[in-house]
Amino acid sequence: MRDKDGYWMRRAVALAGRSPRSETAFAVGAVIVDAAGREVAAGWSRDTDPFVHAEESALVKAVGVDLSAATLYSTLEPCSKRAHRPGATCTGLILAARIPRVVIAWREPDIFVTCEGVALLTAAGVSVVELPEFAAQARAVNGHLPGL
Ligand SMILES: [Zn+2]
Question: Where is the CMP/dCMP-type deaminase domain (predicted)?
Fold first, then answer.
């Protein structure tokens, strides 16, 4: 499982690098993988509109797919507070999609909001795995952010 997780997180980091940079938001990559190890959908920050989050983008592309055995990989902790779409946090969207497992590289630093994504997901019964060996890469994509 760990090798597969590394493979998909490397892909998520590469996707994060495609994000148009913003001084007010993170650059994040996300991939949804089904139980058979096939990619269902992928996204990155601002890939389909100026405010879309990576996880949100991937989830929108996977609408209609049964994700109840899928894993969502994200380079950053899924958000739990959101300025532009307060009713559509990535944490809430992941729970609504019934995704049972989330793998992240980096906990969200408190430069914009205090993120409680991991705590909320865990409390809801989602298995959350952190791959700290990818945190430096996930952070490096965000070297443009003031305050980081
Ligand atoms: Zn988000």
Answer: 3-128
